[in-house]
Design goal:
By secondary structure, the chain is of the alpha/beta class. It is 48% helix and 15% strand. The protein has 14 helices and 12 strands.
C-alpha cells in the first residue's frame, strides 16, 4: 500500500477508534478535534487522542496500532522534483511554483539536480523509487524518451508521476500522456516551433525577401529537434521568407552571443532572429556590437525578455508563466497522491493571455523567471 493510501486508511481508522472511545451522540465535538487532518506534525494529534483511548478499557488492545496509524497520517506529503538543472532559471521558476504549492499545505518537497544530464536524472529517479520515501514525482525530463522506462517503474510502484514541460515519449506534437497513468503539464514543442515561425513571418511583414536566422536549442535533445523541425517547415511554406541560417544557440546568453556572431559573419543581411530568450539576450549584444538592425524574438517569457519587448528592443517573445505551471504540476501531483481525480493533461499556454507576446499583447504581464 502506498504512503497516501496508508495515510487515508489511518484517518479513517483513527476516526472510528475515537468514535468508539467517546461513545454516541454527545461526543461529536471531541471526535472532530481528534482528527489530525490539519496538523503538519505528528506530536499534537497523538497527545490529544491518547488520553481518550486510554480511558476506554474495551479499546486497550487496539491503542498501539491506532497511535501508529495516526503518526503515519500526520506525516507531511512528500513530493520529489526532478528538474533540468538547479542553475537553470526556467527550472528555478518551476521549483518556485512547486514550493508555493507545498507551503500552502505543509508538504515537503526536494529538488534533485541532474545538471542537464539525462542519465544522472534517470539514476536519481531510480534511487528515489528504491528509497520509497516519496508520495509523488514531478519530472522535468532532460530527455523525454530516455526517461520512459523509469517513469513506468515509478508508476508500477504506486508513485504518481507528473511530467512537466517536456513530453514523456516519442511524440512531441501532443500534450496527451504517452505513458499510461502519467499526468502531463506543458505545451507541445511542435506547436511551439510553429508559433515561433509564425511570429517570425509576422515580423517580416513589409520585407521581401525577408531573411530569418534561427538559434536552435540543443541539437542532441529530442525536444529541440522536434521544435526546430516545426520551425523550419513553417518558414519554408511562407512566401517571401527565407531561413538563411540555423545555428545551435543553446540556453545561455554567452552561447547565444557566440551563435549570433557567427550568423552575422556568415550573412550580411539578417532581418529576423529567433531563439531561446537566454540566447537572444546574447544575440542582442552581438547585434549591437556589429551595428546591425535585426528584429529579435525570444522563446520564453523571462523577465528580461518581457521587459525588452515592452521597451521596444525586441519584436516579441513566446510568453509562458512557468512559476504558475510549477504550482499547477504540484497541485495535480497532490490530487493524484491523495486519491483525487486530476486531469490527464494541462495546457500551460492557457496560463497567459496570448503566447505571441508582442508589445500590444504583453500589457502589464510580468515574467516569472530570470534568463
Amino acid at each position: 500500500m502506498t504512503r497516501p493510501m496508508l495515510r487515508l486508511a489511518a484517518l479513517l481508522l483513527s476516526f472510528g477508534l475515537v468514535a468508539a472511545a467517546c461513545g454516541g451522540g454527545d461526543g461529536d465535538g471531541d471526535q472532530a478535534e481528534s482528527l489530525p487532518t490539519e496538523q503538519p506534525t505528528q506530536a499534537e494529534p497523538a497527545a490529544t487522542d491518547a488520553p481518550e483511548m486510554a480511558d476506554a478499557p474495551e479499546m486497550a488492545d487496539e491503542t498501539e496500532p491506532a497511535e501508529e496509524t495516526e503518526t503515519m497520517a500526520d506525516e507531511p506529503l512528500r513530493v520529489a522534483f526532478f528538474g533540468f538543472a538547479a542553475a537553470n532559471g526556467f527550472a528555478q521558476a518551476t521549483w518556485a511554483g512547486i514550493q508555493e504549492g507545498a507551503a500552502a499545505i505543509g508538504a515537503e518537497v526536494q529538488f534533485f539536480d541532474p545538471v542537464f544530464d539525462a542519465n544522472t536524472q534517470i539514476s536519481q529517479i531510480q534511487d528515489a523509487i528504491t528509497a520509497g520515501d516519496w508520495d509523488a514525482f514531478i519530472i522535468q525530463a532532460n530527455d523525454g524518451n530516455a526517461v520512459v522506462p523509469v517513469i513506468e517503474e515509478a508508476l508500477e510502484a504506486g508513485i504518481p508521476v507528473v511530467g512537466e514541460f517536456t513530453p514523456i515519449g516519442p511524440d512531441y506534437s501532443t500534450i496527451e500522456p504517452q505513458v499510461e497513468g502519467l499526468i502531463f503539464v506543458g505545451a507541445a514543442p511542435v506547436d511551439n516551433g510553429v508559433i515561433l515561425a509564425e511570429m517570425a513571418i509576422d515580423a517580416c511583414e513589409g520585407i521581401n525577401p525577408c531573411n530569418v536566422a534561427f538559434l536552435e536549442g540543443f541539437r542532441a535533445l529530442p525536444l529541440d529537434v522536434a521544435r526546430t523541425g516545426a520551425f523550419h517547415s513553417t518558414i519554408a511554406a511562407a512566401d517571401g521568407v527565407e531561413l538563411i541560417a540555423s545555428f545551435e544557440g543553446g540556453y545561455l546568453p554567452d552561447t547565444g552571443l557566440s551563435a549570433a556572431q557567427d550568423v552575422f559573419v556568415a550573412h550580411g543581411d539578417v532581418h529576423v532572429m529567433v531563439g531561446s530568450s537566454q540566447a537572444i539576450l546574447g544575440a542582442e549584444q552581438a547585434a549591437n556590437d556589429a551595428e546591425v538592425s535585426v528584429k529579435l524574438i525570444g522563446n520564453g517569457g523571462a523577465r528580461q525578455a518581457v521587459d525588452a519587448v515592452r521597451e521596444g528592443r525586441w519584436h516579441a517573445v513566446f510568453l509562458d508563466a512557468e512559476r504558475d505551471a510549477g504550482r499547477t504540476a504540484f497541485e495535480l501531483a497532490v490530487q493524484a497522491a491523495t486519491g483525487g481525480n486530476p486531469p490527464s493533461s494541462f495546457d500551460t499556454t492557457t496560463l497567459v493571455p496570448n503566447v505571441k507576446g508582442t508589445a500590444d499583447v504583453i500589457g502589464d504581464f510580468e515574467g516569472q523567471w530570470d534568463s
